């Protein structure tokens, strides 16, 4: 088998890749941060429907992502395996991202048929978006090992790109909902309809942010060239069966993916975070939750970003598996400490000392997530190197599709947990609409006893399932040799 390897990628290609990860995480942040909140608190879809919709989409991801990766490994074109997709998919993804938020408000004012059509529209648009997004996400995540065979440069590129990707995701987490709320309040004042005003504000905000994310997402397909080729012709590429066998037979990779699957409940915090800040700290817009979210997000990003940039050096000096185990054990303690803090200050986390402690927990959480976010793709690339050395083939697409698959599955499992708990306590559909109406009339979510069960649900979800997930993720990695 012939290989064609150039040691280093060019600076402009590295910049294009970093820009692509920034843009991709902006788009992904719009959907993961905004869509569940939009469904639940803007168009008032029932929480249990949101949960099962998310499960359906994520089950589809489990099936489609490995097949997409395997197909890309089989179809090596003149421009490589991944670049052709990155030239076409980003623009389509941006259009579909906006369409996700174009829907009517669900509720008792509609007929049964109207509500069914609203739910069906949400299902179809989300499914199509998920498929198209994977056609761009898998190639983007798989590119670094094909840009350079210099391990230090590859790991540095993975770290820096995820650092800027975190910036993009973090900006969305901070500004999407507050910006939508502000625009919604302006529109509501003119129309006299709070619900419709908030919806239009959300849609306008999504359009603007999608354009901001979509432009840099185009750069990788236009600038980057694949340099590392592990097959010389389509005849040498894996069949679908061989691709899945390769993924499962590589022990370091298999153990890492099992760890990522068990870690899925840690995503619950991300799913419920917006609800926590909007309702507990912000009383659904009547309080100054933006400043709390901004401070917390900046502190968390400080920890996460610093950890991301330092991880390649840690990975070069220490055993990667042991670093992963230590981070997840630490993360377990961090999540449990969040619940303890809430139990000590159930009504006053917004005050200076409790919120300082709350933000410090965010800092520690950011450090743990930052290290693992970079370490996982580095360990996947290492597993690919091991597999290539043994079999003289490099199934990049199928291996990196496992990372995207487990990430999406984690979000799906977490959304189900959140949906079931919220449905059980009545924080769903018309119940959320009733809570919003009470808050508009002057009720206080943080202290009024009528909202106690909702507060408890939010903070239990934010801490207990994530702690369990972090602890379980250690099991496949302990007492294992490379």
Task: Give a quick precis of the structure.
77% of the residues lie in helices and 0% in strands. It is an all-alpha fold and 482 residues long. The protein has one domain: Growth Hormone, Chain: A.
Radius of gyration: 22 Å
The number of helical elements comes to: 17
What is the CATH architecture term?
Answer: Up-down Bundle
User: Could you name the ranges where pLDDT drops below 50 across 5 or more consecutive residues?
Assistant: 1-7, 231-235
Distance between the termini: 27 Å
CATH topology: Growth Hormone, Chain: A
CATH class: Mainly Alpha
Percent helix range: over 70%
Structure description:
The structure is a single chain. The chain is mostly helical and 482 residues long. The protein has a single domain, classed as Up-down Bundle (Growth Hormone, Chain: A), CATH 1.20.1250. 77% of the residues lie in helices and 0% in strands. It is built from 17 helices and no strands. It has helices spanning 11-41, 47-74, 83-99, 112-142, 144-147, 151-191, 194-217, 219-223, 240-249, 251-262, 268-281, 289-317, 320-344, 352-391, 396-425, 430-440, 452-472. Helix 10 (251-262) runs parallel beside helix 15. The protein is globular, with a radius of gyration of 22 Å. The model is unreliable at 1-7 and 231-235 (pLDDT under 50).
Features:
482 residues, mainly alpha, Growth Hormone, Chain: A, 17 helices
What layout of secondary structure does this protein have?
Elements: H1 11-41, H2 47-74, H3 83-99, H4 112-142, H5 144-147, H6 151-191, H7 194-217, H8 219-223, H9 240-249, H10 251-262, H11 268-281, H12 289-317, H13 320-344, H14 352-391, H15 396-425, H16 430-440, H17 452-472
Helix pairs in contact: 1-6, 1-7, 1-11, 2-4, 2-15, 3-4, 3-7, 4-15, 6-7, 6-12, 6-14, 10-14, 10-15, 11-12, 11-15, 11-17, 12-14, 13-14, 13-17, 14-15, 15-17
